[in-house]
Amino acid sequence: MRYFFHSPQGRYPEIDIARGIAILMMVTFHGIYDLNYLGVMDIEVSKGFWRIFAISCASLFVFLVGLSLSISKDRAMAHGITGRDLWRKYLMRGGFLLLIGAGITIATYLIIGDGFIIFGILHLIGTSIILAPLFFRFGKANICIGYSIFLLALLLAGIRLMGISGPIWLAWLGLHPASFYSIDYEPLIPWFGLVLVGLGAGAILYPGGKPLLPLEIHPGPLTGLLSFAGRYSLLIYLVHQPVIVGLLMATGLIDPSAIF
């Protein structure tokens, strides 16, 4: 029995499985978040265990973006895609995600108003994909560049602690008004640093787009489910919230009037 464990040619199942873990962690956290947000249960999601859980989920996702970009770049160059064509490839891919992100911004503004998503995970990934070609040349050194961005993030945190805030139009970088709030906020600083760490790790672990240490993963129900989720992570991301809310309404845990 294949258990959905069919890794298309050119994909590495260990990456799909890791991405599947991240997407299922995200669905779990958003389910907990919705229970709290909609008043079903009183759960502290802004600190403690669930805050650490959310950051771990996003960190795994973002690291894998960088790792996958390293593999993608090596494969593209092996097929003769360089220069402007390489830039165009990632501009189109990143632009597509930013377009979806813009739709999410509009939808959350219309549905929830305060706290709507200005620069969430899709905005971050789309922007990172567009910026990535600027850093391809640095290879393994991207790890050091990424950690430098982490240090810059600490500087920004110190600035905010001193009571200095930035304009809302710099929120995508990590500077924002003191009163700023968003239900999903992953600014470039520090998160693009983690993309670069993944990019550098990809140069080490997948030199030339091929695994340094090939892994043998045996098909099974769990690995199959995770691999499947990893391959369709964008689709799951787009539909999981309506599904969660629909299930809560269907089970009578929330009143539709609480949302609409």
The low-confidence parts are: 1-5
Q: Mind describing the biggest β-sheet?
A: none
- DSSP summary: helix tally: 8
Count of strand segments: 0
Let me know the average pLDDT.
91
Query: How many domain units?
Result: 1
- Supply the helix-strand structural class: mainly alpha
In short:
With 260 residues, the protein is mainly alpha-helical. The protein has helices at 13-37, 49-78, 83-111, 121-131, 142-161, 188-205, 221-231, 233-250. Helix 2 (49-78) packs across helix 6 and helix 5 (142-161) runs antiparallel to helix 6 (188-205).
Description:
This protein has 260 residues and is an all-alpha fold. The protein has one domain (13-258). Helices cover 62% and strands 0% of the residues. The protein contains 8 helices and no strands. The protein has helices at residues 13-37, 49-78, 83-111, 121-131, 142-161, 188-205, 221-231, 233-250. Helix 5 packs antiparallel against helix 6 (188-205). The chain is globular, with a radius of gyration of 19 Å.
